[in-house]
């Protein structure tokens, strides 16, 4: 019941200010009751503290000494940096991030238990600091082999390839762990589109190189994509036949080329040599 109430609640905060952006919100987010009467919230773009009034934010910015998210910088390439934040060590930051993210995530229940999660915050950096572009969260231990819980690209940065970058990054972490991974369900429409696009491009590239002579298990080992996700992706592309009780990949080069053309832009690539990270223990 509580969950249902949360889903049907009307949107309270209509806009937020974050860094140099004013952003219209999409969904309800359960901010503490004392924020119920405001239409607009002001966020410190670095520590994600939120305030009711612009003057409060201005005062905060004079004394806040963060110029990037807390936690460890685990990736840097050009102006792009990724920070890993442990929800247990930075509880308030983790909670603020969840409140912010829920404004753009419909179907997710908010996790107050940020202790159990790691947050990966992607930033574009310049001389004023590291500006958050988007993030994903990941359970420290997942029984269901989830390698991503929630993903968000802030609206001013959407449709520029950051979402695909975040997804690719989540699989690079899984490869380093020596595990396969899959995103937590349900996926939103935009989430599904982005994942389908990522899976399609990664799998088609490999199939083209191997001229189709490869099994789903081998594909999964190479990409850290869960076998079920590989199967549904390839079925969607009509590259699977069922022969003698087995799923077989049928990759006609002409069909592959046609799909690759349709798969669109590759997006921003993760340069694995710039990732300095060891799995959570
Ligand atoms: N319309 C149509 N297709 C879209 C759109 C859109 N508005 N947005 C993304 N796509 C598809 C496209 O195929 C796109 O590839 P293309 O641009 O090459 O055609 C692909 O998704 C990925 O685009 P990116 O630019 O890499 O992704 P973006 O940075 O926009 O982030 C994301 C995608 C994270 C899903 C973003 O839309 C978002 O934050 N949405 C709100 C929150 C959300 O729904 N998150 C997923 C919930 S599910 C979960 O968390 C497990
Ligand atoms: Zn701050």
UniProtKB/TrEMBL annotation:
Residues 8-279 form the MYST-type HAT domain. Keywords: Acetylation, Activator, Acyltransferase, Chromatin regulator, Metal-binding, Nucleus, Transcription, Transcription regulation, Transferase, Zinc, Zinc-finger. The active site is at 184 (proton donor/acceptor). It catalyses: L-lysyl-[protein] + acetyl-CoA = N(6)-acetyl-L-lysyl-[protein] + CoA + H(+). GO terms for cellular component: chromatin; nucleus. Its EC number is 2.3.1.48. GO terms for molecular function: chromatin binding; histone acetyltransferase activity; transcription coregulator activity; zinc ion binding. The keyword Coiled coil does not apply. It is an enzyme of class 2 (transferase). One of its GO terms (biological process) is regulation of transcription by RNA polymerase II. It is found in: Nucleus. Belongs to the MYST (SAS/MOZ) family. This is Histone acetyltransferase.
């Amino acid at each position: 019941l509580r969950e249902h109430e949360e889903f049907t609640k009307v949107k309270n905060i209509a806009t937020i200010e974050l860094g140099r952006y004013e952003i219209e919100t999409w969904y309800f987010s359960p901010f503490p009751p004392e924020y119920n009467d405001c239409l607009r919230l002001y966020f410190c773009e670095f520590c994600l503290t939120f305030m009711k009034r612009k003057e409060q934010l201005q005062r905060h910015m004079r004394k806040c000494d963060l110029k990037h998210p807390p936690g460890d910088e685990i990736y840097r390439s050009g102006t792009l940096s990724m920070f890993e934040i442990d929800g247990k060590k930075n509880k308030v930051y983790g909670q603020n991030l969840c409140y912010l993210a829920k404004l753009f995530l419909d179907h997710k229940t908010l996790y107050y238990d940020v202790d159990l999660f790691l947050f990966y915050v992607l930033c574009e950096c310049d001389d004023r600091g590291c500006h958050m572009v988007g993030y994903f969260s990941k359970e420290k231990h997942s029984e269901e082999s989830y390698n991503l819980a929630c993903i968000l690209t802030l609206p001013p940065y959407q449709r520029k390839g950051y979402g695909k970058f975040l997804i690719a990054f989540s699989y690079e972490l899984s490869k380093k762990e020596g595990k396969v991974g899959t995103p937590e369900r349900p996926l939103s429409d935009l989430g599904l589109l982005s994942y389908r696009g990522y899976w399609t491009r990664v799998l088609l590239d490999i199939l083209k190189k191997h001229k189709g002579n490869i099994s789903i298990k081998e594909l999964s080992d190479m990409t850290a994509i869960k076998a079920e996700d590989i199967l549904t992706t390839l079925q969607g592309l009509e590259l699977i036949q069922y022969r003698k009780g087995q799923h077989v990949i049928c990759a006609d080069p002409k069909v592959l080329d046609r799909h690759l053309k349709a798969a669109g832009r590759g997006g921003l690539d993760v340069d694995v040599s710039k990732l300095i990270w060891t799995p959570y223990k």
